[in-house]
Backbone:
């Protein structure tokens, strides 16, 4: 553990990568493959050489988001930080918080934690990337949101039991193995009081939108942001998300793998770790969830 700007830094992921040893390489059109074993060498961040794109990331929980991506994050999520998007979300979370305290897994730059905290609820954050957390710490209101640097698959945050743990912005998918996603559920359960809720916001995998015979689709095509995702490993449920973002006159390239997860699989992970599904909606506006929903807000309640 090291200390950074008043944060507790648990560098477990780097340790795990270092312990796991080197990877066998197998390149392919900018996307991960299923048949490599072992992990990359330590200290991987999100800005990696193009030659690394094309590898599977087995046995590794998450990529640490580096400084360039942290600097671009708030701009990239500007639309998602506007009151019409944030207000309903913060409203739902505030109600589930029942006065708090609450814990945000993968708190990032505080997009959600800070407005929730501004409603008088005690919010704690857990975050893997010190670069993202530094951005949070620099914002007004950050004094009220203690942040622990660590991995949401394993790190325990002081202040439990919490009334609510939440994980939004598709971030369960940043954890790239099924075992580690299950560990996120188990870790949420550890932090909650009985009856407390674990809320996830995550997309429904959009494989139906991939043109027949193709492995890629463009999901964003704006003047300052082009995003392409490739579906590479159907068994491991691994896709890669590639971004080209113009920020401050610079072009930032960011590619990261994610593990997509079906609603039924979330429910099974919840059952295994002592939750029951309380509610599933298509969004924070409480629209009903249907077979055509592209996203979901799932609320799991910890059983006694
Ligand atoms: C899409 S951002 C979401 C940030 C914030 N929750 C929001 O809604 O704006 C994803 C965040 O998850 C963090 N993250 C990824 N894997 C993680 C892990 N295993 N444990 C903790 N944080 C993680 C990243 O560093 C990044 O800050």
Residues:
């Amino acid at each position: 553990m090291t200390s950074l700007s008043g944060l507790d830094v648990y560098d477990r992921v780097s340790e795990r990568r270092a312990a796991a040893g080197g990877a066998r390489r197998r390149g392919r059109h900018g996307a991960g493959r299923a048949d490599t074993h072992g992990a990359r060498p330590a200290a991987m961040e999100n800005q990696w050489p193009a030659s690394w794109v094309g590898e599977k990331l087995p046995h590794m929980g998450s990529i640490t988001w580096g400084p360039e991506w942290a600097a671009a994050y708030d701009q990239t999520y500007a639309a998602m930080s506007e009151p019409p998007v944030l207000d309903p979300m913060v409203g739902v979370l505030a109600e589930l918080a029942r006065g708090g305290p609450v814990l945000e897994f993968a708190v990032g730059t505080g997009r959600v934690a800070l407005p929730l905290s501004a409603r008088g609820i005690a919010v704690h954050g857990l975050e893997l990337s010190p670069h993202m957390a530094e951005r949070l710490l620099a914002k007004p209101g950050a004094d009220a949101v203690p942040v622990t640097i660590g991995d949401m698959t394993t790190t325990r945050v002081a202040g439990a039991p919490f009334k609510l743990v939440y994980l939004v912005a598709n971030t369960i998918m940043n954890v790239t193995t099924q075992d580690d996603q299950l560990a996120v559920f188990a870790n949420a359960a550890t932090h909650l009081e009985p009856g407390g809720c674990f809320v996830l916001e995550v997309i429904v995998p959009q494989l139906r939108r991939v043109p027949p015979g193709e492995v890629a689709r463009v999901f964003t095509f704006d003047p300052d942001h082009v995003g392409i995702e490739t579906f590479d490993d159907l068994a491991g449920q691994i896709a890669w998300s590639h971004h080209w973002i113009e920020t401050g006159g610079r072009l930032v390239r960011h590619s990261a793998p994610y593990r997509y997860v079906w609603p039924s699989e979330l429910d099974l992970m919840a059952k295994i770790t002592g939750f029951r599904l309380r509610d599933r909606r298509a969004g924070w506006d409480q629209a009903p969830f249907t077979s055509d929903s592209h996203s979901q807000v799932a609320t799991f309640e910890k059983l006694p």
Summary: The pocket of S-adenosylmethionine is lined by residues 61-62, 65, 77, 106-108, 111-112, 126-129, 132, 151-153, 168-169, 171, 174-175 (CB under 6 Å). The longest strand covers residues 192-203. Residues 94 and 119 are 8 Å apart (CA to CA).
